[in-house]
Specification:
heterodimer, A: alpha/beta, TIM Barrel, 9-stranded mixed beta sheet, 5-stranded parallel beta sheet, 17 helices, globular, B: mainly beta, 13-stranded mixed beta sheet, 2 helices, 4% helix, elongated, Formylmethanofuran dehydrogenase subunit A (chain A), Formylmethanofuran_DH_asu (chain A), hydrolase activity, acting on carbon-nitrogen (but not peptide) bonds (chain A), Amidohydro_3 (chain A)
Chain lengths: 560, 235
Amino acid sequence: MLWIKNGIVIDPKNGIEGEKMDIFVKEGKIVEESEVNKEECKVIDASNKLVVAGGVEMHSHIAGSKINTGRSMRPEEMRVVRNVAGKFRAVVGRVLLTAPGIGYEYAKMGYTTAVEAASPPIGSPHTHEELDAIPILDKAALPVFGNWHFVFKFVSEKDQEKLQAFIAWAIERTKGYGVKIVNPGGVEKWMYGSNVRTLDDEVPIYGVTPREIITEVVKANEALNLPHCVHIHCNNLGVPGNYETTIETMKLVSGMKNENRPVLHVTHVQFNAYAGSSWRDVSSGAEEIAKYVNKTDNITIDMGQPIFGHATAMTGDAPFQFTLHRLTGARWSNKDTEIEGGAGIVPLVYLPKNPVHALQWAIGLELGLLIDSDKVVISTDWPNGGPFTEYPYIMAMLMSKRMREKELERVSPYVQKASSLPAIDTEKTLYEVIKMSRSLPAKILGMENKGHLGVGADADIAIYDINPNEVDPSVEYELINKAFRKPAYTIKGGEIVVKDGELVAETWGRTFWVDATKKVSMEAIESDLDEYFQNYYSVERINFGVDERWVKKPARLEVK
Amino acid sequence: MMLILKPKKDFEVSVEAEITPDLAEKSEEEIKNFEVWYGKYKVKLGELFEIKKEGDEKKLVLEGDFSRVKWIGRGMPDGEIIVKGSVGAHCGAFMSGGKIVVEGNADDWLGAEMSGGEIVVKGNAKNLVGCAYYGDLEGMKGGKILIEGNAGNYIGEKMAGGEIEIKGNAGDFVGTEMKNGTIIVHGDCGFVGGDMKGGTIKIGGKFDLLPSFKKAEDGWVGDINVGGEGKIVKI
C-alpha cells in the first residue's frame, strides 16, 4: 500500500488541473482513501511535486524482427555500453537499445506502458519473445494488416463478414492488440518492383485500391468494436507533396463515429506532411493537416518528431526505405518481403544544418503546436525520428516559444521560408502536454485503466520535481526539460521502480491482447484459411501464431 | 619518466590493457593499480607485469612477448611506445599523435581509425591495418603506418587520410571503400581498390585489377561502380 501525500496532481481525464491531493494505492490499483490502512502505507512525500499518470507510448518499435535486424546491422550502435550486468541486466546501444534497456529508459522517464506499432504476423512469436524481454512496462503489439493477402481477398470480394472474422482470428492468433496498416497496398506492389502513388492505384492481382482497403478495414474494426481504432501509416510516406494523400486518407472516415475513441489514428504524421513537388522545393504541409484534424472529431495523430542526432529508420514500408537508402547512400536491409508485409531498415542521422532534416524537425513541432491537444500525441516513432528518451525536450519545446527561438538559431535557415514554425506563438500548457503523453494515448488505445489517476486505474504513476503552480514552462524550459528526464519516482503497478531518476527495482509488466473471436463466426473463413495455408504459407496453419501460455504475463481483453 | 613493463608470465587468455605513454607520468602506485582486463577478470597492471621506471622521457618500453596484449596505445595523443617483441590486436587504434615502434609483429586492427601519429612495425602485420571498425564510416584519417614486413587482408578499408606503407607483400582487398589518403605496397598483393571513392594506391609488384577500373595516364581510375576517382599507380 502506498500513500502519495500532498502532491500537485494533473489528471486531464478526470479534469484535475494542479490540485493538491493525496493518492492511495492498493494491490496495484489506485483506490479510495477509505480502502487503505494509513498506518500500513508506505508514505511518499510529494509536496510541491507534480504527480501524474505514468506515460503511455502508443507508437514505438520496441520488439520484433525489424528492430532486431536493426541491431545486427548497426554494430556501431552496440559499442555504447549503458549498463553492465550486476543488479540490473546489461544494456548496450546508442539509440537502438537492447530489450532490457527499452524498459529501463522508458521507466527512467516516467513512462510505464508502450505499444509495438508494427508486428509482422508470421513473426509474432519473435515479437512476443522480445516483448517478454522488456522489463517494467506494460506492453502490446499491433499486427500489420494493410498488405495481407487475406485482407486483399476479402476486400476485393466486398465480404465484410469474412473480413471481420479474419481480423478477429488474426489478432487472436498473433496475440495482438489492434489493427495496424502500413502503406496499404504499396508494400504488396513493392514486391513487383514499384509502389502505389494515389489512393486509387491498384494492387497487382487483387485489383483492390488503398482507398478500398482502408475503408473496409476501418468498417470491420468498428463493427468488431475493438478497443483501439485503426492505426494507419499512410501511403506516400516521405514523399514531397504527400500531405494531400494524408488528408485524402483522413477524409475516408468522414461521417463515421465512435463514442469512446477516434475512428482513425494517423501515425508519425510528420513523415506524411510535406508540401512541394520534390526535395528541392519541399515545404511544410502541417498547417493544412492541422486545419483538417482540428475540424473533425474522429481522427487523432501522433507527431513522429525527429530529434537531431542518430536515429535508425525502420518501417513496415519497404518501398519507402528503399527510396531512403537511394537518397542517403546508407546501407539498408529489407525484411519479410515474402510474408504479410515487408520492412526496411536504414541508418540515419538528423543534422540541424541539413535543410531537409531541419524542415522535418520543424514540421513535427508544427503538428504538435497547431493541432488541438486532445488530438495529437507525442512520439518520435522511435527509432525512426530519434530516441524516445528525448520526449522531455519535445514537451519543453511545445511549452516554450523562447526555447524554440533559441533552437531555431542553430538549424538551417531553410526552415524560415519552408515552414510556419518561427511564426507560431502557441505555447502548450503543462496540462496539455500531460494530456498528449498520458490520457490521450490511453484513450486512443482504449486502455481504460491507463493514463489517469482516478479510482480503479492501474497504479502507474510518475512524480516529477516541479510544482505546476509555481513553474512557468514558457520561461523555465530548461527546468522542464531536466525534470521530465529524472522523475523523483516512477511507480509501476504500485511498485517503486525509479527513484531520483535511478532504477531501483525491476518488475515485469503484462502483455495486453484482444480477443474478439466471440463476435464473429469463425466458420465463415475456415476453408479460406485452410486453402491459403496449404498453398502459400511456409508454415502449417496449426503452427501459425502464438499461444497465450507462451507469453510471460498475458492480459486478455475480451471484446463484448 | 620512462616506464618499462615486462610480462610476469605467459598469458593464458588475452589481456586488454589500454596503456599509453601517459602512464609513465603517473606514480608507481597508480601504475601498479591501473586496471586492465585479464580474460573476463579485472586485474591490476602490477599483477601481470613487472614495472620499472627510469630516465625522463614520456615513453613506454614493453619488453618481452606482448602478442596477447590488446589495445596498446589506444587513443594516445603523444609520447612514445617501443615494443621489444610482438603486439596484440588493436595496437594504436584511435591514436592521434606520438609514435609506436613494434620490433616484432603486429596483430589485426593496427592503427584502426587513427587520426595522427606514427606507427612502425619492423616485422609483419596481420589484417585490417588502418581500418574502420564495423559499422563506422571512416577508417584511418591521418598519420602514418609503416610495415617493414608483410601485411594481411583488408589494408586501409574505408581509409580517409594519412599513409600506409608496406615494404613487403599484402593480401587481398587493399583500400576497399577508400576515400582518401595513400597506400603504398612495395611487393605483391591481391585485389585492390574495390568500391574506392578517392585516394591513391601505389604498388611495386604484381596485383589483381578489378574490371571496374579504367585506364588513365599514369595508372587506373575507379572504382567506376561507385563513381569513384581513386587512383591505382604502378611504382
